[in-house]
């Protein structure tokens, strides 16, 4: 007989889900603008959307999601100012009659509010992984401040990359600790090495503003070193041998690390890249190959923690994940590497389709509800405590799956 639905599958989403709407609008606008940047403009899309495309996607789309995660972890009403301000900034950037500086100012205020959230989390329970995430937030503030003062978007790239990469790697370090018998406090521990690397990244990014030939190459070295350390200790290297949700998450994360290493290699070899194919390759290797792959990996466990609605895992989620990486290979290795505009366009359109397909499938999975099994087999829905720190929410299903892989092996499309 059928099993009952997961308790979290009924009822309305938490009101804080409304704070995700501006981020969602920023995502859709950014994808619409991407067609114009590919040379395939859509009718009715303002030119301004193309001008703010990069910051829109990083600080107002992903930034809003990260800030909302932090606010949930903080469990204090003041924490929601950060996602609210970042979302407001995105809306202001999208409305042409509104001065662009109004949107820039709101985005800067949102990043400063995010620093405030991290400060309160630090006072509650400071740790080296949290410090890495805080340094990522410093990168966000620096990028927003430089943009408000007139710096061109290409010069913000190291800071935008630092915000997302350090935030994600900090959370992965927290998860990696679960797979260790006891945390290491040695200077050679992954936490200490990555924290040192994060500090080095900020110094290199600052150097890149005044000595770009030196700064960008140092950025490449630091980024490659940090990703090597974190990926080596990531539990994904073990959970890739499991099944179901945990294997899906591991596949997405390991693929993301490969793209991040690719971006590091381009900076290391090419030095400062502010335009052209190398610039395109670095940004999309990081923001599509690494960041969006990580978002696809963690959505089934992070969104339920934020929304209090389950996002059940189904095998069909591999479809947008595979499309994302295959289209990125076409875009970077065929298009950018060989300067083939058609390959760039084909790969770019594939990137957009992959993102939209993931959004549609994830939303559909939420509406349909948990996967039901017959003959008394338990539902495959992943539980996530809404009040938990997002990294902890990710930890729970992975840690539980190590001794009991059969719990997630039965998910079907």
Gist of the model:
The protein has 413 residues and is mostly helical. The protein has helices at residues 20-37, 47-51, 53-74, 81-94, 100-125, 128-148, 157-176, 190-210, 212-233, 236-239, 244-270, 276-307, 318-338, 341-368, 390-401. Helices cover 71% and strands 0% of the residues.
Assembly context of the chains? single chain
The total count of strands amounts to 0
Order of helices and strands: HHHHHHHHHHHHHHH
Identify low-pLDDT runs: 1-10, 178-185, 376-413
* Rg value: 20 Å
Could you describe the largest sheet, including whether it forms a barrel?
A: none
Summarize model confidence as the mean pLDDT: 86
Binned strand content: under 5%
User: Helix proportion of residues, in percent?
Assistant: over 70%
Question: How far from one another are the termini?
Answer: 19 Å
Shape: globular
Number of contiguous helices: 15
Determine the structural class based on helices, strands and strand pairing.
mainly alpha
Task: Describe this structure as you would to a colleague.
Helices cover 71% and strands 0% of the residues. The protein is mainly α. It starts with 19 loop residues before the first helix and ends in a 12-residue tail after the last helix. It is globular, with a radius of gyration of 20 Å. It has helices spanning 20-37, 47-51, 53-74, 81-94, 100-125, 128-148, 157-176, 190-210, 212-233, 236-239, 244-270, 276-307, 318-338, 341-368, 390-401.
Give me the secondary-structure topology:
Layout: H1 20-37, H2 47-51, H3 53-74, H4 81-94, H5 100-125, H6 128-148, H7 157-176, H8 190-210, H9 212-233, H10 236-239, H11 244-270, H12 276-307, H13 318-338, H14 341-368, H15 390-401
Helix pairs in contact: 1-3, 1-4, 3-4, 3-5, 3-12, 4-5, 5-6, 6-7, 6-8, 7-8, 7-9, 7-12, 7-15, 8-9, 9-11, 11-12, 12-13, 12-14, 12-15, 13-14
């Amino acid at each position: 007989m059928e099993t009952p639905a997961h308790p979290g599958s009924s009822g309305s989403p938490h009101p804080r889900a409304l704070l995700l709407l501006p981020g969602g609008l920023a995502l859709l606008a950014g994808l619409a603008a991407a067609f114009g940047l590919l040379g395939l403009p859509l009718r009715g899309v303002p030119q301004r959307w193309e001008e703010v495309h990069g910051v829109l996607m990083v600080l107002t789309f992903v930034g809003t999601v990260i800030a909302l995660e932090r606010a949930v972890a903080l469990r204090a009403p003041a924490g929601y100012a950060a996602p609210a301000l970042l979302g407001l900034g995105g809306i202001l950037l999208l409305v042409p009659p509104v001065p662009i500086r109004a949107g820039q100012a709101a985005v800067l205020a949102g990043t400063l509010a995010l620093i405030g959230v991290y400060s309160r989390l630090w006072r509650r329970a400071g740790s080296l992984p949290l410090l890495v995430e805080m340094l990522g937030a410093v990168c966000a503030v620096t990028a927003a401040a430089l943009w408000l003062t007139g710096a061109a978007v290409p010069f913000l790239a190291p800071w935008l990359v630092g915000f997302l990469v350090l935030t994600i790697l900090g959370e992965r370090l927290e998860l990696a600790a679960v797979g260790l018998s006891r945390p290491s406090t040695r200077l050679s521990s992954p936490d200490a090495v990555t924290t040192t690397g994060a500090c080095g990244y900020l110094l290199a990014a600052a150097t890149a503003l005044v000595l770009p030939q030196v700064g960008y190459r140092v950025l490449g070295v630091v980024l490659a070193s940090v990703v090597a350390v974190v990926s080596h200790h990531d539990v994904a290297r073990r959970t890739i041998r499991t099944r179901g949700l945990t294997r899906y998450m591991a596949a997405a994360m390991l693929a993301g690390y490969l793209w991040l290493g690719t971006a590091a290699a381009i900076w290391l070899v090419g030095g400062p890249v502010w335009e052209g194919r190398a610039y395109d390759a670095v940004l999309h290797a990081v923001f599509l190959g690494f960041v969006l792959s990580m978002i696809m990996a963690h959505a089934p466990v992070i969104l339920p923690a934020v929304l209090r609605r389950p996002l059940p895992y189904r095998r069909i989620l591999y479809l947008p994940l595979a499309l994302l990486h295959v289209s990125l290979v076409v875009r970077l290795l065929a298009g950018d590497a060989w300067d083939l505009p058609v390959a760039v366009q084909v790969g770019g359109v594939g990137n957009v389709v992959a993102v939209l397909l993931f959004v549609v499938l994830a939303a559909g999975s939420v509406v349909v509800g948990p996967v039901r099994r017959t003959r008394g087999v338990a539902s495959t829905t992943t539980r996530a405590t809404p009040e938990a720190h997002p990294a902890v929410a990710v930890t729970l299903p992975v840690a539980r799956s190590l001794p009991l892989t059969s719990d997630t092996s039965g998910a079907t499309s």
